């Protein structure tokens, strides 16, 4: 039996929100106790973080955009995407000490912008050998979001007809980049269209987009027609229905969620459920009137699914685009940079060189 891991220090460094506010106002790198990081339950995994990536949810939660559904306790640790090395595992079935892993950790496990995270085996996959830690950290949340959103729209019980043409707006964004590649290589779409600025057309074409619409010069709803599926990354459902055939699907990550989807992930009270359903009603109405299917998708951590994505990376079918890498001490600056909305690809935090 291996000797249980023991920390040599009583604290570790991790980026936190000290209160609700913008990253420049409320994000600090603090030293927190290590005593709650040790694996105590079967399947627990302690990971030494080599790199993490940040996503819009990281600053939106800190600004209070989700506090009615997911309130924060401060200091609130930041970050869900992680790539690192297993330091300890409790009764592990998938991983052992020394394994290189990556994953999207759980809501209550946030803190990948730190030296260590405690998570569970089911949320992790083996890091592709073809990717660096920085590249691997840039994959989980965005790629899993794209995969699950496409899968639930194209392989669900309400699927009607063949799915060969996909529209994925904002193809140069984090989810959009992975959505284009997964639509082709994991789900077999033969035509993938996206919206993008002129200077990024070559980039999205290199990822697999064969139809590009320069959103600064033309409207996609006047250019595209008879598409089967939309991965909605912008919330523009009213126009997206115009390009779909009857029986097509819109799977959204950008509109307003309904109580059925959010209630399956978070505890919602009666009034919050009613508010969400009322606010999201317009999306269901416009899609129903157009004769297309609609759903909102909230991503769930899934190590097994991430393993499938890792296989595509190993096969050279999944490219990772990193916009910029920051050191952990610059976490607030990194979040502000992402918040400005100018990044092309993922923003990564290097934790251990």
Describe this structure in words.
The chain has 353 residues and is α/β, with parallel strands linked by helices. 30% of the residues lie in helices and 26% in strands. α4 crosses α5. The protein starts with 10 loop residues before the first strand and ends with a strand. The strands form three sheets. Strands 3, 5, 6, 7, 8, 15 and 16 form a seven-stranded mixed beta sheet that branches. Strands 11-10-9-12-13-14 form a six-stranded parallel beta sheet, sandwiched between helices. It has helices at residues 23-26, 56-63, 133-137, 140-154, 174-185, 201-207, 220-223, 237-240, 259-263, 270-290, 303-314, 331-340, and strands spanning 11-17, 27-33, 44-54, 76-77, 81-89, 100-104, 116-120, 124-126, 165-167, 191-196, 211-214, 227-232, 244-252, 293-296, 322-327, 346-350.
In short:
By secondary structure, the chain is of the alpha/beta class. The protein is built from 12 helices and 16 strands. It is 30% helix and 26% strand.
């Amino acid at each position: 039996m291996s000797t249980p891991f023991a920390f040599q220090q009583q604290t570790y460094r991790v980026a936190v929100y000290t209160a609700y506010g913008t990253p420049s106002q409320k994000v600090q790198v603090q030293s927190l106790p290590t005593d709650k990081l040790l694996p105590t339950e079967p399947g627990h995994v302690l990971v030494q973080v080599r790199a993490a990536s940040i996503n819009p949810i990281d600053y939106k939660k800190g600004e209070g955009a989700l506090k009615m559904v997911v309130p924060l306790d401060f200091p609130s640790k930041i970050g869900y995407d992680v790539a690192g090395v297993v330091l300890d595992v409790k009764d592990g079935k998938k991983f052992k000490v020394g394994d290189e892993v990556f994953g999207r950790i759980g809501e209550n496990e946030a803190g990948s912008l730190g030296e260590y995270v405690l998570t569970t085996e089911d949320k992790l996959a083996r890091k592709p050998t073809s990717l660096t830690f920085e590249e691997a950290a840039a994959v989980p949340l965005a790629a899993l979001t794209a995969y699950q959103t496409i899968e639930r729209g194209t392989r669900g019980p309400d699927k009607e007809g063949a799915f060969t043409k996909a529209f994925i707006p904002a193809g140069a964004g984090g989810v959009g980049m992975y959505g284009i590649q997964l639509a082709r290589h994991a789900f077999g779409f033969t035509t993938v269209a996206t919206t993008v600025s002129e200077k990024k057309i070559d980039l999205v074409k290199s990822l697999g987009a064969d139809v590009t619409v320069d959103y600064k010069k033309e409207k996609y709803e006047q250019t595209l027609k008879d598409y089967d599926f939309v991965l909605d990354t912008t919330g523009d459902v009213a126009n997206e229905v115009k390009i779909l055939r009857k029986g097509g699907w819109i799977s959204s990550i950008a509109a307003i969620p309904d109580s059925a989807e959010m209630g399956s992930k978070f505890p919602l009270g009666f009034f919050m459920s009613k508010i969400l359903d009322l606010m999201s009603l317009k999306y269901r109405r416009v899609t129903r009137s157009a004769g297309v299917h609609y759903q909102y998708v909230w991503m769930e951590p899934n190590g097994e699914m991430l393993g499938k994505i890792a296989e595509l990376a190993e096969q050279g079918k999944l490219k990772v685009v990193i916009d910029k890498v920051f050191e952990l001490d610059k976490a607030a600056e990194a979040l502000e940079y992402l918040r400005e909305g100018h990044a092309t690809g993922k923003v990564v935090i290097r934790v251990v060189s």
